[in-house]
Amino acid sequence: MKIEIKCIFSGKVLFEHEQENNTVKITLEDGVKVGAYLDGANLAGAYLDGANLAGAYLAGAYLARANLAGADLAGADLARANLAGANLAGANLAGAYLAGAYLAGANLDGADLARANLAGADLAGANLAGATYGKCVEIGNNPLFILGLTWPVYIFKAHIKIGCQIHSKKEWLDFTDSDIAKMESRAAEFWKKWKKHILWMAFEGE
């Protein structure tokens, strides 16, 4: 059976695969293996449970209501992808590029978002219970992202990430000027200017 993956905007066939007992999941995995360019792929409602999509190029893809539970999306490009209502429970999104992605109502319970780029992502109503940034940092249901400063600031349930530095809220509160200065040459100036604002947002958010 031949299955075609088409662009939701133009209807153009982006990739096709034919084999006995073929599925959308098999076809998509095969496309990823060969480096298919799947910008705008229409995968609405697709059953992709446990799919190996590491490094996939799915920018702008339409994955609304798709089942991606347990899928490996490490390093995948999902910029501007529509993942509204998608099931991403337990998915590996480490290093994934999700800038501008639409994740409203998505289930990210237990998903790993370590090093993921979430700039501009819409997480309204998303279930982030149990979602982590790496192994030990729980994201929480109301993460806050501050862009446009020297370094991006991510405020999670009990942690704050500034640039590559990620520490608990209490640790950031207790750091001395000397501790901050050791992190990076511009860190002391940055922290002096933004400390009160960042900590206010971090603790007010609780």
Q: What share of the residues lie within helices? A: 10-25%
Radius of gyration: 19 Å
Continuous helix count: 4
Distance between the termini: 53 Å
Spans of 5+ residues with little confidence (pLDDT < 50)? none
Overall 3D shape: elongated
Strand order of the largest sheet: 3-4-5-6
How many β strands by DSSP? 6
Reading the helices and strands in chain order gives EEHEEEEHHH
Largest sheet: 4 strands, antiparallel
Q: Round the mean pLDDT to the nearest integer and report it.
A: 94
Secondary structure class reads alpha+beta
Strand content: 5-15%
Topology, element by element:
Layout: E1 2-6, E2 13-18, H1 24-33, E3 144-146, E4 153-155, E5 159-162, E6 165-168, H2 169-174, H3 177-181, H4 187-204
Antiparallel strand pairs: 1-2, 3-4, 4-5, 5-6
Description:
By secondary structure, the chain is of the alpha+beta class. It has a domain at 142-206. It is built from 4 helices and 6 strands. It has helices at 24-33, 169-174, 177-181, 187-204, and strands spanning 2-6, 13-18, 144-146, 153-155, 159-162, 165-168. The chain has a 4-stranded antiparallel sheet. Strands 1-2 form a two-stranded antiparallel sheet. A hairpin with a 6-residue loop joins β1 (2-6) and β2 (13-18).
